[in-house]
Amino acid sequence: MIRTRSLRPFCAPFSGPGLTVCGETTRSNSDADGSLPSSSLRRSLSLTVLPVVLLAVSTGAAAFERIPKSVAVLPVRNLESPCKNIFVSGEPERVGASKLGAAVEASLSTHDDLKLVPFVTLRNKLAGTTAYKDRLVVGRERYLMGKELYNDLRQPEAEDSLRRALDLLESVYYDLVEPDAFSEILMLLAVTLVEEGKSAQALAAFKRTVLLHPNLRLPAGYHPKSVEESLILACEDVRQSLEREIPLAGADRTQDLMDRHGVDVLVLPLLTSVEDRRVLVLVLFERGQLSVSFREEVPVTDDATTAAGIDAAISRWAACTPFKRVKHGVEETHSFVLSAAYDHMLYLLFPTRTPVQSVGFSFETGYFFVPSFAIMGRFQLMYSVKDRYEDMYEEFTSARAIIGPAFSLSGTWWRVFVTPGVELNYVGSFSVTSDPDCKFFADGSDGYKANCDPDRIDNYPLQILGGVNVYLGSQFFFSNQLFLSAGASVSTYVMPFDRSIEVNFPISGEIGGGVAF
Amino acid sequence: MRIVSPLPTRTPAAALAAVLTLLCSALPGCIGEDDLSGLWEMPVDGPEVSIPVLGEGFTGRVRMAVGQYGKDIAGEVVFYEDSYHKTSLFAPCSCAYLDDSEVRDGRLTFSIATSCGVDILGDFNADLGGDRETLTGTLSTVGDNGQEFSLVLERVGSEDSVKNEELDRGCP
Fold first, then answer.
1. What is the pLDDT of residues A206-237, one digit of tens each?
2. C-alpha span between B44 and B32 (Å, rounded)
3. Cβ contacts (< 8 Å) between A356 and chain B: which residues?
């Protein structure tokens, strides 16, 4: 029996729309398919399939990497205090809401796959745009105008001006940046609507006011009774409805915020009381999903227990949420490369009538200090072959050493790089002739002695040439560490400086393979 | 503005062909040029050739060992009298080295100076297209009474045959 641990946790829909419950599961092949005919067949299948699966899993797991999700945590929405407290004078209760928010952020920051975006950062980002600054000025002007119109008892005009102010400020998420200031405008709109007799619209405005400013405190008796009643009603309504669990007065706006600012997950912590128990409700929204993607209630007791509850809830969600996977470029996963190749080289300048070719092997090593930059060294051992007119009378061996920086580009399975380097080429002694008699007759034979003039054979002693080399290489990974390679290079020699260079401009092509680690 | 390369490398196939041509140009026998290297003989089932001015008169067959290096040619011509065993060499002047020899457009020309004191010019056209590879031409004696003798040579072996028969060691 083969037991394989599934790579993805098993997730099943939970009761309630948009909610999931997750847990990892273990599957066995025999459980999945009990109809395998015999144990021997099963064993043979195991022996065949297992190595392939292990190889695929090991290479695949190493090559692919999850893309972290960016997570922003909104300030804790504290709905704990009773609605009647709105008109109770004194300091608003805070009851450690900010501490709970910090605990949620701390829990999220422990996950490698999550990238926490502190709310301060998100807020600064929202408030830092030119559009925000421009619309804030106009929006505030409209608000002040609405306030003046209200004071002049011109409620319809005031309502219009206030709504335009709210629309403008909403478009730049002023309600998220300055919730208290935004709720002040909403409050004035709600009062205006009450005075206009538009009680349903006023209730909606009051509800949003209370959501944005849960610890709203107003002096009792300052507002007309109808306003106080409507506000209390809105407050009670908000505490019982699911509206409290929607962050920006709508799923569309929430998605828009996440899309515009690259937030993958938005966490709304809600502090509330259920039958005298304090409960932290964690509501998570994910980009691309219009419904709540995760909801969990965590009892708030002592700090340690609460933190553990938050950790458990976050872990459950993190285990289930799908992550995009990306296969990194090869240069991001390897530092060393080692390869060997078959080489074919052509000297464009040579004391023969046609270019001379050499064949041989090369060995190459490189170390990537940073992605896209490495130091590479190559050693080649080459043997010359007959030229077209067989002018190469005595063939030669050469050894080349090349070192230089490499600049590379890579994809998920390929890498191309260029290496400008310095080269030393040890060229063994050789001789050249264009006399056909010297070529045709065997050395030392009567025919050779009779026809070949030794003066027509030019001898070249061994020499060491120095110059520059440019190598263009490519690697094609067929597994995580193994690759096939192909490349081409060209050199020019400038050493020795006495103009005695008879051999120059070698171009070479190579094909081989190697390992990266 | 689109820059058009003057080289025939506008497609990957053309570029590859250009590279292969460059590589091939450096290899012997890679480009399809006529290669006369090898061993050539008059066919056994053909008529013999008579050259009366050679020695006291030669009647027999001719074989020729050729090495070609570009347009340059080296080798030797052997005269023998035994059609089958090729061992009965024409005693007075059995062999001569090719001089001033070259091949151009499938036409092989050379001169030989025989030890009999007769210089001979050779002029042959190669036909390497069919099943039988042949050199068809003449041997002409040089002098006031120059004579021309037509003959056909057939390739019977490669460079290896030349070496195996030790014709690359010089005249026997």
1. 999 988 888 788 888 888 888 888 889 999 89
2. 29
3. 26
CA distance B163 to chain A (A): 9
Pick the residue of B72, B99, B100, B162 with the most A CBs within 10 A to test the interface with A by mutation.
Answer: B72
Burial group, residue A161, by CB count within 10 angstroms (0-12, 13-18, 19+): buried
Q: Is the pTM of this model over 0.80?
A: no
Closest residue in A to B73 (Cα) is A436
DSSP 3-state assignment of A163? helix
Given CB atoms, is A511 within the 8 Å cutoff of chain B? no
In a shared domain, residues A36 and A89 = no
Domain count, chain A: 3
Q: Is residue A398 located within the same domain as residue A488?
A: yes
pLDDT at A3 over 50: no
Q: Nearest chain B residue to A346 by CA: give it.
A: B23
Is A55 part of any domain? no
A448 has a chain B CB within 8 A of its CB: yes
**β-pair partners for A284:** A267, A294
User: Among B30, B69, B98, B103, which would you mutate to test the A interface (most chain A Cβ atoms within 10 Å of its Cβ)?
Assistant: B69
Name which of B92, B69, B68, B66 is nearest B79 in CA terms: B92
The answer to whether A447 faces chain B, any CB pair under 8 Å, is yes
- Give the closest residue to A471 by CA, choosing from A458, A489, A455, A484: A489
- The verdict on A498 and A394 lying in the same domain is yes
- Measured at the CA of B97, the angle between CA B91 and CA B103, to 5 degrees, comes to 135
Query: With contact defined as beta carbons under 8 Å apart, do A249 and A256 qualify?
Result: no
Chain A positions touching B27 (Cβ under 8 A) are: 357, 385-388
Judge whether B44 is closer than 8 Å to chain A, CB to CB.
no
Average pLDDT over residues A365-390: 91
Residue A456 at interface with chain B, using a CB cutoff of 8 Å = no
- Give the ipTM: 0.84
**Joined tokens for residue A96:** 């450690």
CATH number of B38-169: 2.40.128.30
Q: Are residues A429 and A509 in the same domain?
A: yes
Q: Distance between the two ends of chain A, CA-based, in angstroms?
A: 34
What's the pLDDT tens digit per position in A50-79?
444 444 444 444 456 778 899 999 988 888
Are A295 and A408 within one domain? no
CATH code of the domain containing A398:
2.40.160.20
Residues of chain B with CATH 2.40.128.30: 38-169
Q: How far is CA A406 from CA A75, A376, A463, in A?
A: 49, 6, 28
Residue for token digits 């001379």?
A: A356
Whether A443 has its CB under 8 Å from any CB of chain B: the answer is: no
Q: What does the alpha-carbon distance between residue B78 and residue A185 come to, in Å, rounded to a whole number?
A: 119
